[in-house]
Design a protein that fits this description.
Layout (H helix, E strand, L loop, with lengths): L9 E9 L9 H10 L2 E10 L11 H14 L3 E4 L5 H11 L2 E3 L1 H12 L3 H15 L26 H36 L4 E6 L5 H9 L16 E7 L3 E7 L9 H6 L1 H8 L3 E7 L5 H14 L7 E6 L10 E4 L5 E5 L8 H13 L2 E8 L4 H9 L3 E6 L5 E8 H11 L7 E2 L12
Parallel strand pairs: 1-2, 1-3, 3-4, 5-7, 5-8, 8-9, 9-11
Antiparallel strand pairs: 6-7, 10-11, 12-14, 12-15, 13-14
Amino acid sequence: MFFDRPDSGELAVLVHMELSRNVITEDPREFEELVLSAGGDPIAFVTGSRERPQAKYFVGTGKLEEIHQLVIQHQAEIVIFNHELSPSQERNLEHVLQCRVLDRTGLILDIFAQRARTHEGKLQVELAQLHHMSTRLVRGWTHLERQKGGIGLRGPGETQLETDRRLLRVRLKAITARLDKVRKQREQGRRSRLRAQTPTVSLVGYTNAGKSTIFNYITGANVYAEDQLFATLDPTMRRVELQGVGAAILADTVGFISHLPHRLVEAFRATLEEAASADLLLHVIDSAAAERAHNIEQVNDVLKEIGASDLPTLLVYNKVDLLEYKTPGIDRDENGRPIAVWLSGQTGDGVQYLTQAISELLSEKIIQKKVNLGLGLGSLRARLYRHNAVVSENYLQDGSSELEICVPEGDFQQMLAAEKLTVADFDWLDGAPNFQQLVM
């Protein structure tokens, strides 16, 4: 029932109100893009200002009459508000306007319903929709009312509204159980990648920043990428080979948006956990967007909500081809570490800098060193071979071994702990690793 859509765009009247300075309002341009992404056909845009929303209709009676006249004049099928409406406000507005009324959350949920392709994605959207609907149930018919009497007219002892609520609870429980299973499967996959020491890199960013375009360019995949909001909904993962690192997993994720409905964050937690458990986040930014700073802040808010704000992050300024003052390249900090990359995912200019920066940041967690192992370190040498960490070995005249090793830092620390050694116990030929080893 949730995924049936009309064949043509619905005539829509859009309403955006500027509230008092203490209330952060949404961007009206982004609002119109959301409506177009949902397949709507905006025929009028109503704006106004209020100190605070009116309790019954959100807007004042004069503005309500203006909207009503536009609905009649254009025979609009729906009125969409760029705000959160309470269930009672939605019902009161529909009663006066005699057409469907939708708020910002309902609009975003509708777009997500259209974009969902996988079974998991559809489950996540339906969960969010059911939570949203649960407060908006109204009496649609009365044939199940307990007040009915007579032969053949007696109901099951509950009203239609109670039946709907009970069915909703059953469906919510079933979907939640399925998504819990998906979460466990994803967690198992992450543990497998961790055991195999395969690093994960997740693309995150504001919707329509160009994540899927960059993903396609790097991986050669054919993920749906369009110039519209929420073009990507279902997460996609691909294996890539990085110089100096080897195999890595690149994950494309759903885009964020200003004030992303909390129910959506909850519903997509299984998917967003892929970003929260990544070794490196690529925060893709539309460098040509006028509201660039605001979009970065909104993405950081969502990352904080899912527990990913402290992960290593590389800023990726996309669409540099639209800027006159900037060329593709890498920005570095005072220590020479990459902190930002400027590129164009559309033309491919600068993508090589991105793969270079990813390799540099991931290789920091991989120890590539030459070490001289004395005669008493045969047990550690055996451990290194068991982990396929030895690249080459030369035997010296005194019986010691000169090894070139390539091993993840975490694995090497575990080996040292098992042997009760520290990095100071070795003769490093090209400098000791820059981590502090604790003796277990």
